[in-house]
Amino acid sequence: MKREKKHRNFIPQPDYPGGPKGITEFIYKELKYPEDAVPHKVEGTVVLKAEINYKGDVIDAKIISSLFPSCDEEAIRVVKLLKFKIEKIRDLKVRFYKTFNIKFKMSIKNTEMIVNYIVLKSEPKNKNLNPQKLLLIIKSTNK
User: Which of 27, 50, 88, 122 has its CA 20 to 30 A from that of 12?
Assistant: First the structure.
């Protein structure tokens, strides 16, 4: 007869499906860079502490290290979407706390670069001729 293994910790910590990698993928899939932070070119990390109830829901999140007001709000919004799996032991209703580091980085997507230049086929024989002017728009899409 096999013995049942005891838990290493008295109270097991909440788990997220997919583990830490799953949390990271979910956060960066849901995270949107705030529009009002674009002109300020804000980049950095928001550190926050989330409170998780006995059901696995994030019920509160507090900023530990702020970056920019709208970035802080976005980080809180995304963390509150997380749903953890919690093992029940002895019908205890325990609250857990986890710290999250959420990085904000500007991405260069769908940017346009306008280049103005003159094309000369050869030296004009007639000095009164204007060289052709071209306007070239280059769109870069980095994914």
Answer: 27
- Record the tokens describing residue 101, joined without a space: 């580091």
Query: Rounded to a whole number, what is the distance in angstroms from the first to the last CA of the chain?
Result: 56
Claim: this prediction has a pTM higher than 0.70: no
Amino acid at 40: H
30-48 average pLDDT score: 92
Beta strands in 1-143 (DSSP E): 44-52, 58-65, 96-104, 111-119, 132-140
Please give the structure tokens belonging to residue 22. Answer: 């799953």
- CA dist., res. 76 & res. 109, Å (int): 24
Please give the structure tokens belonging to residue 115. 């280049």
